[in-house]
Structure to design on (658 residues):
């Protein structure tokens, strides 16, 4: 990052401080610090933060972050925010540990600090907001398939590699709740190694081996796209529903072709909204972030903290033909 | 005598493929249905095209490890061009793809020819550079199916006489290569350079220049495949075809292309690619644990190569019997 852009970013933050001294006295100022400016996902989170601010009335959201995804850039932003004496900082961190000293300093000055999306080590924040949790994701991936199979049916899993930690945990969590979805049978688990061509081949193989297959669940972004393409090429749109976890921008074509009825991933708008709500509650309503605490976050319900002061916001958000157009340009 | 040896080797490989098909069919009957075999061939088409390019390079005692990265970079470039100019006709896109690929091949070729850097080092370097460039031009972002035009993704899968264009491209490449290697001065000089570079120089063949052309051919084919690949899977990102270069080299080696250069045939490379294609397509349907699949693929390669090495080993001849008797 050039010195010039750093100066610009700092100037912009400083400008925001001096431009609204009158407002500052009345309003609660919540800084939403993102990994880098100009990323669709975070722009959407800022939109959610604004929504929370409008709902709360007396909140001013300062959306800021470095121009590239470095911890150093975020430390500068944090220092500028401390100088501004904001009321709360909600950060999606570029580094788990590097930000801790700066954020500790912020907390010493009475600023509420929470992390969201990408966390900070426990000593550097009061709580961490995860977009979802492994059990919720595990349940969601099978629910996505089961929702379109009222009479039950055969589903197969297309994962990343055999050693992918996330995917293995989600599939394990999924197996725990299979009892809630009677009639839905997982007939096979195959691995596409997160390669488009291998995933495509594995999906084609699944459709051959199980001619009555009703759904392919791919909890990986490469796999879900490749499987959707394989279903289109096999002429099985309408028979085999591809679902799982993917990004709206990558899955828009699959939704359009009908190969995928729906899929899920976090909703950045909800995430920004919840982070702002949580920061406000901690900063203004005297709620203490402690293990077991239940903190309200507006329309998103409440956040329950675990022993590490972390909480899961909600189920992954479901995207289908009704909302894909609004999200495909966001992330 | 050498020319009679090649068909024998190819017959063995063809029999191995038939045997493989029989074994797979005994576990999953649908696999040998003509429509499925056509699908398998179509799925193997990119590998066949790249294996032919690689064959030419290996014949000249070089190796091109940058083919997959070249493919990915060209694929990303064509996808981005398509997004920027959706109206651009497909023949123009293909021409751009072939040219881009050829330029990248030429870079390899020049480094090997003029700077005399070992080809494995050159292409290992350019492989990483090409992948890096994809990251630079794409910013790490994907180009997705809904952003590509229907004509762009439709071309390789358009059916013509019962087979998709992708398959026909592979067939056309095979025919062109068969003629080129057997009937043109370039084809013959490629064999000569690999067989005995010193002798080739005395016959007036420029060894470096021939190697340069081999890299250009390999690059151009990688470029062509880049477009076909991205259009087929309807997605372009940094890591597409990751590790595919090794599969291409494996196809050549299984097909009996000698890594030492100078020995091999177009038919062998094609059969080698088809062998790997059948294995890759059969494993998912015969219900073998995914944990075993990699091991099985690897063993198949080793067995095939060991077989080839045995069959191809020239029998030693004792020409000085008296010396042997004396020692």
């Amino acid at each position: 990052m050039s010195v010039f852009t750093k100066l610009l970013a700092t100037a912009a933050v400083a400008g925001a401080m001096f431009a609204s001294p009158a407002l500052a006295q009345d309003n609660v100022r919540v800084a939403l610090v993102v990994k880098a400016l100009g990323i669709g996902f975070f722009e959407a989170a800022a939109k959610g933060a604004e929504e929370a601010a409008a709902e709360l009335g007396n909140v001013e959201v300062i959306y800021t972050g470095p121009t590239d995804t470095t911890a150093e850039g975020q430390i500068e932003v944090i220092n500028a925010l401390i100088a501004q004496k904001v009321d709360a900082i909600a950060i999606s961190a570029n580094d788990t540990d590097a930000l801790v000293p700066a954020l500790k300093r912020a907390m010493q000055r009475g600023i509420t600090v929470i992390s969201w999306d990408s966390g900070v080590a426990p000593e550097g924040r009061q709580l961490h907001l995860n977009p979802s949790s492994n059990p919720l994701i595990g349940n969601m991936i099978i629910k996505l398939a089961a929702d379109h199979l009222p009479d039950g049916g055969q589903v197969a899993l297309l994962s990343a590699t055999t050693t992918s930690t996330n995917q293995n945990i989600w599939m394990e969590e999924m197996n725990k709740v299979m009892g809630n979805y009677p009639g839905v049978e997982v007939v096979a688990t195959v691995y596409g190694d997160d390669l488009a061509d291998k995933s495509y081949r594995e999906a084609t193989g699944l459709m051959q081996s199980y001619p009555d297959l009703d759904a392919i669940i791919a909890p990986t972004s490469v796999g879900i796209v490749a499987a959707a393409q394989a279903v289109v090429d096999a002429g099985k749109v309408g028979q085999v529903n591809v679902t799982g976890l993917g990004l709206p921008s990558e899955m828009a074509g699959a939704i359009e072709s009908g190969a995928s009825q729906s899929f899920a991933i976090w909703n950045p708008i909800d995430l920004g909204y919840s982070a702002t709500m949580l920061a406000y509650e901690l900063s203004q309503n005297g709620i203490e972030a402690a293990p077991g605490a239940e903190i309200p976050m507006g329309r998103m319900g409440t956040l329950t903290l675990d022993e590490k002061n972390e909480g899961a916001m909600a189920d992954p958000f479901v995207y289908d033909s009704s909302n894909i157009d609004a999200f495909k340009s966001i992330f | 005598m050498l020319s009679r040896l090649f068909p024998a080797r190819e017959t063995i490989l063809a029999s191995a493929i038939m045997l493989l098909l029989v074994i797979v069919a005994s576990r999953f009957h649908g696999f040998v249905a003509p429509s499925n075999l056509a699908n398998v061939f179509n799925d193997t088409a990119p590998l066949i095209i790249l294996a032919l390019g690689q064959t030419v390079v290996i014949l000249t005692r070089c190796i091109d490890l940058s083919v997959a990265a070249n493919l990915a970079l060209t694929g990303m470039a064509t996808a981005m061009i398509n997004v920027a100019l959706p109206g651009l006709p497909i023949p123009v896109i293909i021409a751009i793809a072939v040219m881009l690929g050829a330029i990248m091949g030429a870079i390899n070729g020049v480094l090997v020819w003029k700077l005399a850097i070992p080809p494995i080092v050159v292409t290992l370097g350019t492989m990483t550079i090409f992948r890096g460039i994809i990251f630079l031009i794409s910013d790490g972002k994907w180009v997705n199916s809904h952003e590509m035009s229907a004509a762009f993704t439709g071309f390789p899968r358009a059916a013509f006489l019962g087979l998709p264009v992708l398959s026909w491209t592979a067939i056309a490449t095979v025919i062109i290569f068969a003629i080129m290697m057997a009937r043109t001065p370039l084809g013959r000089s490629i064999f000569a350079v690999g067989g005995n570079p010193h002798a080739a120089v005395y016959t007036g063949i420029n060894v470096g220049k021939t190697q340069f052309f081999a890299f250009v051919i390999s690059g151009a084919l990688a470029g062509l495949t880049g477009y076909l690949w991205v259009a087929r899977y309807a997605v372009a990102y940094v890591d597409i075809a990751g590790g595919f270069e090794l599969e291409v080299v494996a196809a050549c080696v299984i097909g009996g292309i000698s890594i030492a250069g100078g020995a091999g045939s177009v038919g062998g490379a094609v059969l080698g690619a088809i062998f790997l294609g059948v294995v890759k397509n059969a494993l998912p349907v015969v219900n073998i644990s995914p944990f075993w699949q990699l091991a099985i693929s690897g063993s198949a390669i080793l067995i095939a190569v060991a077989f080839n090495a045995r069959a191809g080993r020239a029998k030693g001849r004792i020409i000085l019997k008296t010396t042997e008797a004396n020692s």
